[in-house]
Amino acid sequence: MYHLLYPLRSYLIVSGHQKTNVMTADWLTILSKEPFIIGVAISPKRYTYRLIKESGEFVVAVPTLEILGDVWVAGTKSTPDKLKYMKISFIESEKVKTKSVKEAVANLECKLIDERNYGDHTFFVGEVVHFMYDGEAFKNMVPDLKYKFLAHVAMNEFTTFEEKIYEC
Fold it and tell me: What is the CATH number of the domain that holds 130?
Protein backbone atom coordinates (compact mmCIF):
# COMPACT_ATOMS: atom_id res chain seq x y z
CA MET A 1 0.00 0.00 0.00
CA TYR A 2 2.86 2.43 0.64
CA HIS A 3 3.33 2.75 -3.12
CA LEU A 4 0.15 4.82 -3.21
CA LEU A 5 2.35 7.70 -2.03
CA TYR A 6 4.78 7.40 -4.94
CA PRO A 7 6.49 8.91 -6.87
CA LEU A 8 8.88 10.02 -4.15
CA ARG A 9 12.18 11.85 -4.45
CA SER A 10 15.21 9.58 -4.27
CA TYR A 11 18.31 10.38 -2.23
CA LEU A 12 21.61 8.73 -1.42
CA ILE A 13 22.34 8.17 2.27
CA VAL A 14 26.06 7.98 3.01
CA SER A 15 27.21 6.47 6.29
CA GLY A 16 30.32 5.21 8.05
CA HIS A 17 33.72 6.51 9.09
CA GLN A 18 36.27 3.75 8.50
CA LYS A 19 34.08 2.06 5.90
CA THR A 20 31.94 4.25 3.69
CA ASN A 21 28.58 2.92 2.58
CA VAL A 22 25.83 4.41 0.45
CA MET A 23 22.21 3.39 0.05
CA THR A 24 19.24 4.79 -1.84
CA ALA A 25 16.34 6.12 0.22
CA ASP A 26 12.97 7.51 -0.79
CA TRP A 27 11.50 7.77 2.69
CA LEU A 28 13.00 11.11 3.74
CA THR A 29 11.27 14.24 5.01
CA ILE A 30 11.92 17.72 6.39
CA LEU A 31 10.90 18.02 10.03
CA SER A 32 12.00 21.58 10.87
CA LYS A 33 13.26 24.65 9.05
CA GLU A 34 14.93 26.28 12.09
CA PRO A 35 16.93 24.40 13.13
CA PHE A 36 17.08 22.48 9.88
CA ILE A 37 16.11 18.91 10.82
CA ILE A 38 15.34 15.99 8.51
CA GLY A 39 14.38 12.38 9.02
CA VAL A 40 14.91 9.20 7.06
CA ALA A 41 13.38 5.74 7.55
CA ILE A 42 15.88 2.87 7.30
CA SER A 43 15.36 -0.83 7.91
CA PRO A 44 17.45 -2.40 10.70
CA LYS A 45 18.37 -5.05 8.10
CA ARG A 46 20.47 -2.49 6.19
CA TYR A 47 24.20 -2.04 6.65
CA THR A 48 23.57 1.73 6.64
CA TYR A 49 21.44 1.31 9.76
CA ARG A 50 24.38 -0.17 11.68
CA LEU A 51 26.82 2.50 10.47
CA ILE A 52 24.52 5.37 11.47
CA LYS A 53 24.01 3.81 14.92
CA GLU A 54 27.80 3.48 15.33
CA SER A 55 28.78 6.94 14.05
CA GLY A 56 25.82 9.09 15.09
CA GLU A 57 25.80 10.87 11.73
CA PHE A 58 24.99 10.55 8.04
CA VAL A 59 25.03 12.54 4.82
CA VAL A 60 22.08 12.97 2.47
CA ALA A 61 23.25 13.40 -1.12
CA VAL A 62 20.88 14.73 -3.80
CA PRO A 63 21.34 12.78 -7.05
CA THR A 64 20.28 13.61 -10.57
CA LEU A 65 19.57 11.54 -13.66
CA GLU A 66 23.31 11.68 -14.44
CA ILE A 67 24.04 9.14 -11.71
CA LEU A 68 20.90 7.01 -12.01
CA GLY A 69 22.99 3.86 -12.45
CA ASP A 70 24.66 4.46 -9.09
CA VAL A 71 21.32 5.23 -7.44
CA TRP A 72 20.06 1.87 -8.73
CA VAL A 73 23.10 -0.07 -7.48
CA ALA A 74 22.97 1.68 -4.08
CA GLY A 75 19.33 0.70 -3.76
CA THR A 76 19.50 -2.91 -4.94
CA LYS A 77 22.80 -4.25 -3.63
CA SER A 78 23.16 -4.55 0.12
CA THR A 79 26.77 -5.49 0.70
CA PRO A 80 29.55 -2.95 1.32
CA ASP A 81 31.42 -4.14 -1.78
CA LYS A 82 28.67 -2.60 -3.97
CA LEU A 83 30.90 0.48 -4.20
CA LYS A 84 33.11 -1.34 -6.72
CA TYR A 85 30.10 -1.39 -9.07
CA MET A 86 29.49 2.34 -8.69
CA LYS A 87 31.12 5.27 -10.46
CA ILE A 88 30.50 7.95 -7.82
CA SER A 89 33.38 9.31 -5.81
CA PHE A 90 33.52 10.64 -2.28
CA ILE A 91 34.85 13.91 -0.92
CA GLU A 92 35.52 15.11 2.61
CA SER A 93 32.58 16.69 4.39
CA GLU A 94 33.00 19.89 6.40
CA LYS A 95 31.37 19.15 9.78
CA VAL A 96 31.02 15.35 9.91
CA LYS A 97 33.47 12.51 9.34
CA THR A 98 31.09 10.76 6.93
CA LYS A 99 32.01 11.45 3.30
CA SER A 100 29.89 13.39 0.79
CA VAL A 101 29.17 12.43 -2.84
CA LYS A 102 31.16 14.49 -5.31
CA GLU A 103 28.69 13.96 -8.19
CA ALA A 104 25.61 14.96 -6.16
CA VAL A 105 24.13 18.43 -6.68
CA ALA A 106 23.82 18.82 -2.90
CA ASN A 107 25.10 17.13 0.25
CA LEU A 108 23.51 17.66 3.65
CA GLU A 109 25.68 16.71 6.61
CA CYS A 110 23.60 15.46 9.54
CA LYS A 111 24.25 14.76 13.21
CA LEU A 112 21.89 12.16 14.63
CA ILE A 113 19.64 13.72 17.29
CA ASP A 114 16.92 11.09 17.65
CA GLU A 115 15.75 7.71 16.47
CA ARG A 116 12.48 5.87 16.87
CA ASN A 117 11.33 2.44 15.79
CA TYR A 118 8.13 2.29 13.76
CA GLY A 119 7.08 -1.10 12.47
CA ASP A 120 9.86 -2.59 10.36
CA HIS A 121 11.90 0.65 10.06
CA THR A 122 13.80 3.04 12.30
CA PHE A 123 13.25 6.74 11.74
CA PHE A 124 16.61 8.49 12.10
CA VAL A 125 16.35 12.21 12.81
CA GLY A 126 19.32 14.38 11.94
CA GLU A 127 20.11 18.05 12.38
CA VAL A 128 21.73 19.42 9.23
CA VAL A 129 24.98 20.93 10.52
CA HIS A 130 26.39 21.86 7.12
CA PHE A 131 25.42 21.65 3.47
CA MET A 132 27.13 22.03 0.12
CA TYR A 133 25.34 22.52 -3.17
CA ASP A 134 25.84 23.30 -6.84
CA GLY A 135 24.87 26.96 -7.23
CA GLU A 136 23.72 26.35 -10.81
CA ALA A 137 21.40 23.53 -9.78
CA PHE A 138 19.88 25.69 -7.01
CA LYS A 139 19.81 29.28 -8.28
CA ASN A 140 18.59 31.53 -5.45
CA MET A 141 18.02 28.31 -3.46
CA VAL A 142 15.36 27.16 -5.96
CA PRO A 143 15.98 23.85 -7.76
CA ASP A 144 16.59 24.25 -11.49
CA LEU A 145 14.57 21.38 -12.96
CA LYS A 146 16.83 21.05 -15.99
CA TYR A 147 19.17 19.17 -13.62
CA LYS A 148 16.67 16.28 -13.63
CA PHE A 149 16.23 15.50 -9.94
CA LEU A 150 15.16 11.89 -9.49
CA ALA A 151 11.86 10.52 -8.26
CA HIS A 152 11.24 6.80 -7.76
CA VAL A 153 8.03 5.59 -9.42
CA ALA A 154 8.09 1.81 -8.99
CA MET A 155 10.53 -1.08 -8.63
CA ASN A 156 13.10 -0.17 -11.33
CA GLU A 157 11.39 2.94 -12.71
CA PHE A 158 12.43 6.52 -12.07
CA THR A 159 11.30 9.84 -13.46
CA THR A 160 12.46 13.42 -13.40
CA PHE A 161 10.48 16.60 -13.00
CA GLU A 162 9.32 18.42 -16.11
CA GLU A 163 10.64 21.95 -16.54
CA LYS A 164 7.18 23.45 -16.66
CA ILE A 165 6.18 25.32 -13.51
CA TYR A 166 2.54 25.90 -12.60
CA GLU A 167 1.68 28.94 -10.53
CA CYS A 168 -1.47 29.55 -8.51
Answer: 2.30.110.10
